Amino acid sequence: MTRRTRVTVALCGVAALLLTGCASDGGGSGGDGDRTPPPPLKGTPALGKPADRPDPNDFNGDGYDDYARVLDAEGGGKDERDRATLVVLYGSPKGLLTGSPARLRARSGDEFFTEPHRADLDGDGYTDLVVARGESADWETFALFGGPRGLGAPRPLALEPGTRVQAAGDFNGDGRADLLDGGRGGSGDINAESPGQDPAAVLLGPFDRAAGEPAGSIPLDLGQHGYTSPYEAVVGDVDGDRRTDAILFYDFDAEQDDSAPEGLTSIAYFRGDATKGLVPGPDVRPDLYESLANFDTIRGATIADMDGDGVGDLVGASQVSSGRSASGRNPGRVTVIHGSRTGLGAGRAATVLQFPERRGALWGEAPHVGDVNGDKKADLVVSDLEPRARTGGEVTLLPGDGKGPVRDRAQYLSPLTGGLPSRKGHPDVWSGFVADALLDVDGDGRDDVVVHADEWESGRRGSGKAKHYGGEGQARTHAAFLVLGGTDKGLDPERVRYFTPGDVRGETTLK
């Protein structure tokens, strides 16, 4: 099974990412939110080795998945500064090494960091991390190359200024990792600083590690007659031809624009191609719109083999336009559009998962696919930011049976689940309890769920006053991360590791 986990990272030009320290562990007592957090787990990751097909979640090839995330330190009071830091936690037999993380700080609070992508760019058998940093539309793309000791220092890639890497994959099927540059701008792009448009391209691997140059590039027309450019891409093989396909998302406002061309679409499907990189796929727009349409923007999508046929399926979260949930709002849902040898949606009818009797409008947020119980079948993990008035966040595990997620075997975890650790003796119920990643951090063959809770340690036991959840990558002073261990029976809240932003970076506010 191929796992795809979306993470957010940042980078800064410093030396290699290495962990130091000595191993330690700790336990805790059970109870309803009063479990004592174990101390940060220190240690040095094992030396890894290269692989013919390296695991995209493992930077050092030691068999344990690694976690990467950007954390934002905020100024206090009237201090509006912020500063981003990349944090990399390496996996080990005991889980994530949280006591001695690798970290890189941004050079200034004005710099932003794009979404990272994991791929073996230079073909050395280790997974690398690709990310860009900069201000406004001026950014540079870097690679942090993997190796037996983990990620090295960031090295600039020799790409055109402003290149916007949106995905990594093998789009032409030659066995080497490529990068997708989605292009920039357009006359109707609401985020463009000028009406001109820079074309998209597939940047072909392998990349030269020393020079940072791709082996070549293939220009693409993804701009819809020069009007707009995709702002996000979800990639995977949905037709079983061993080439990476792409679902592209666009953001534009053409209702009052007489110059807008006909046939604009906010979602597009492109197939990997041996000579052209990506070509338009068969039209599945009705299915795509039905599965991914929302009131404002997409709430998460991924591509993974949900039904065990060897072909990737599109898993997307959406809100329906009719019907009411138990909370009196439109219920959230997750739709699986099945891939097939003849293309996306050309085989089985779509699978729709919905819980209107209990779950709220935001159920299905940020889907993650992996194997939590170790049975080699795809399991689905989704989040819900407002399932019921009292919880303020919930994570749902839907185990797979080889044909897809099984609704009747669903497992729910929330801030009200007994035994979860908190340094203040209890978590804030309104913490924004959200699944952030699905990784096998201890190498036992079962994926673990990393949960981010934005206000876990605020000390307001269900006061309802902390109903903000922050943006992607945000880590406030009261935030906490909980790593829920996978077992053969699902997620075990008693088998949990806990850490705060302070544990992995040494600061949560600027001084």
TrEMBL record:
InterPro entries with a match to the protein in the record: FG-GAP, Integrin_alpha_N
Taxonomic placement: Bacteria, Bacillati, Actinomycetota, Actinomycetes, Kitasatosporales
Signal peptide range: 1-25
Swiss-Prot/TrEMBL keywords: Integrin, Signal
Any Pfam family the entry gives: FG-GAP_3
Record SUPFAM superfamilies: Integrin alpha N-terminal domain
Record Gene3D superfamilies: Integrin alpha, N-terminal
GO biological process: integrin-mediated signaling pathway
Protein name (Swiss-Prot/TrEMBL): Putative integrin-like protein
Region annotation Disordered: where it falls in the sequence: 27-68
Source domain of life: Bacteria
